[in-house]
């Protein structure tokens, strides 16, 4: 009887599972981790889409900046699936390649803050004393300040564009990694095996790099996924406020700002579609974060916080 | 001095170095970064070197860094945030004028987040792993991933442009904006004080969309913490005991569990003020809301250096104060918190 045996439909998630099972020789790390898989699938899909669209600009037949022959401000139709903007460009083609800034800045900024924040956290947690106190207080002070405002002020000072956004967003997240690694270090430091290594005569640097740091990696991984989700939103907001890529370049945040001008005339498609892209991508990173947290902390899974 | 008085004093004394560090970080970020403020201020304009030099002397940027730092700290202590190069008015005066608008928006945003987040979190916790729980959690995660400015614009499209139920932006409608006389700057309060029903209706109508925008953005955090905190408490032995004694489930949840689950929930409420101020930048921009966050954005666009610095310092002071209040409030809610 059809329908009794669940058919495995070919899907991106299924494909991903297959690839990972092949790669790990069946020791599938992702088995049952549907949240994590969906998250990874979304992010990979976005990476592939954005990379392709930036390599082949006219991916859907229209160039995101050069094509200007569409009807002006027309809603979704058969030939322009997501409508057209005031400069007679195809919205869908701009959506496809508009994630470049978001992805570039999010990944670079998180890598930057992860490196600086973790190193500071390890040092601070391991050194202790007044160094630790001053560092912690400074980081807490930065952490308590609204990150969005800090990022905006920093970008305004650095100037707009990709590199300034990376520095600004990266700076804002440093305290997050500092706090996570410092807390982990303090916990690991108290364990008997660290004490034993210390007694054997290992140097401080060796203990930090070989024994304390690796133990903090899991926590950092989970935090960084949530951070990426947040970074996508921050970059979108910065672009929306006009601190992102210069105008003709396709960018979700900036395109939404552009759409705002035609909102009163009811051109909903100009803001709706770029927004859905931002949400989906951010959601993808968020789901990865959820998935990793479940993996790292199985107890948490039961309660599904 | 008694327990709580001493605790408050200790907490105030701890806040001082925190504020000091925050002020120093702000100073260093704005001073040491590439491009000095004068060039930024005159940015793009074709001005001679003499004019730039004159500006530098007048604003004190030709002094060594430590003197600038001392002047800056001294100014902040005396409540002198400098003058806006755009309007020529003292920055503090400009900020105080706009502060009520931000606070009003923020309070109603928190109210929305509190109602949505708290109730959905509570439902999810009591119906853990049931369909209602899953639906709520998807809603919470989606609220996290939602760009706030986008939500605001979508609400504008749907409720203002398409349906025409609510105004698109600003705090008051056209005619009302001229006739309404604010007293405190909190328009809801002002309309009530003036006993003006029409004004109150107008003010509330303008407040709905921005408050919901800001509120929904905070709902995810509030809801997740409520759910997690409730689940943890509901798992405890004394809850099992209460249930075994035959206490009604409603009483168990609302009286036995909720009280103990409140501490993390309130903590998040306090932390939200930081997120809230960040969200306010976008909400105020989208809804042309005349608060300090939109003032900051306009100052940045105008390269109004003292206004930018002043606003950042002002927000820093505000956040520190709120954190202090939240910390003190714990000890009132939880008798175990005694330092």
Characterization of the model:
- The complex is a heterodimer of chains A (305) and B (339).
- The longest helix of chain A has 37 residues, at 204-240.
- Chain A has helices spanning 12-23, 34-55, 91-97, 100-127, 129-144, 147-158, 162-189, 192-200, 204-240, 252-260, 269-296, 298-303.
- Chain A is mainly α and 305 residues long.
- The model of chain A is unreliable at 300-305 (pLDDT under 50).
- In chain A, 70% of the residues lie in helices and 0% in strands.
- With 339 residues, chain B is mainly alpha-helical.
- Chain B contains 14 helices and no strands.
- Chain B has helices spanning 3-32, 37-41, 49-59, 65-77, 91-126, 131-145, 148-162, 174-179, 187-193, 197-234, 237-244, 249-286, 292-301, 305-333.
- The longest helix of chain B has 38 residues, at 197-234.
- Chain B is globular.
- Chain B starts with a helix and ends in a 6-residue tail after the last helix.
- In chain B, 38% of the residues are buried.
- The model of chain B has no long low-confidence stretch (mean pLDDT 79).
- Classes of the chains: A mainly alpha (305), B mainly alpha (339).
Give a quick rundown of the structure:
The complex is a heterodimer of chains A (305) and B (339). Chain A has 305 residues and is mostly helical.
Mean pLDDT of chain A: 79
Helix and strand sequence of chain B: HHHHHHHHHHHHHH
Q: Which pair of chains forms the biggest interface, and how many residues does each contribute?
A: A-B, 47 and 57 residues
Number of helices of chain B: 14
The chain-level structural class of chain B is mainly alpha
How many extended strands of chain B? Answer: 0
Report how far apart the termini of chain A are: 40 Å
Give the overall shape of chain B, derived from the CA principal axes: globular
Biggest pleated sheet of chain B: none
Runs of chain B in which pLDDT lies below 50 for 5 or more consecutive residues are none
Strand content of chain A: under 5%
| Mean pLDDT score of chain B | 79
- Order of SSEs of chain A: HHHHHHHHHHHH
Please identify the oligomeric state.
heterodimer
Tell me about the largest β-sheet of chain A: none
The rounded Rg of chain A comes to: 23 Å
Helix content of chain B: over 70%
Poorly predicted runs of 5 or more residues of chain A: 300-305
For the terminal residues of chain B, how far apart are their CA atoms?
A: 13 Å
Helix count, DSSP H or I runs of 4 or more residues of chain A: 12
